[in-house]
Specification:
- The chain is mostly helical.
- The chain starts with 17 loop residues before the first helix and ends in a 13-residue tail after the last helix.
- It contains 10 helices and 2 strands.
- Helix 8 packs parallel to helix 10.
- The relative contact order is 0.20.
Length: 219
């Protein structure tokens, strides 16, 4: 999410989870929830290009002044569905698929939906506090919530997860944050950080401390 509209989180997962993640991706088959979310975002993007990127962003982006002054609270979610261009949607879709399929394998589709939506809201709220002007767009807050949830999983299940897997997740998080600092004028780092915090908090409370209890079976 950005001061104007953001080319926010062109996160490029270097090795989203190492060999284990790739094997998990093969075993899971088609990640249903992830695919549905990406299809919805793609459909919204088509509408954006038809209506005009600028017009669609002003009409439904996360306009923080409209959010506060006119009570248009829905914008915090519609802004997460909009994107600022072809590369923006490409990188976000790639990141969503990479982390989403792994999330569905390790947890569940319902938790994926909850983490993504709550992290998008959490990122939006932190951005609202520290960057109260401008219009933000992009799914990065929600995507980073998925990443931080996976990081909590990796450390809480360390006896079942390789060190390379944990290192890969932390490397991705570090890369995204550094990338955001370099391009801070167009990237909403508060949206990123808020998403990371929300996903980590969700994982902290949802992933059982008992390493042998399946998180897919917890509420």
């Amino acid at each position: 999410m950005s001061v104007e509209y953001r080319q926010d989180d062109e996160e490029t997962p270097e090795d989203e989870s190492g060999e284990d993640a790739e094997q998990a991706g093969h075993r899971i088959g088609i990640p249903i929830y992830t695919s549905v979310f990406i299809a919805c975002i793609a459909a919204v993007t088509i509408v954006q290009f038809y209506a005009g990127l600028g017009d669609s962003i002003m009409a439904a982006g996360f306009d923080k002044r409209a959010f506060l002054a006119r009570g248009e609270y829905w914008r915090i979610l519609t802004g997460a569905a909009l994107h600022g261009g072809v590369m923006h949607i490409f990188f976000n879709s790639y990141a969503f698929y990479s982390f989403g399929k792994l999330f569905e394998f390790l947890s569940s589709g319902s938790h994926l939906a909850s983490v993504f939506m709550l992290s998008a809201i959490g990122g939006g709220l932190l951005s609202l506090i520290f960057m109260p002007d401008g219009v933000s767009v992009g799914a990065s807050g929600g995507i980073l919530g998925l990443v931080s949830y996976l990081a909590v999983y990796a450390f809480r299940r360390r006896q079942f997860v390789t060190a390379e897997f944990r290192k890969s997740l932390l490397t991705n998080i570090g890369f995204i944050l550094v990338f955001g600092l370099i391009l801070f004028r167009v990237i909403d780092n508060y949206g990123h950080i808020g998403g990371l915090i929300t996903g980590a908090v969700y994982g902290y409370f949802q992933i059982p401390r008992d390493a042998y209890q399946d998180p897919r079976k917890t509420g």
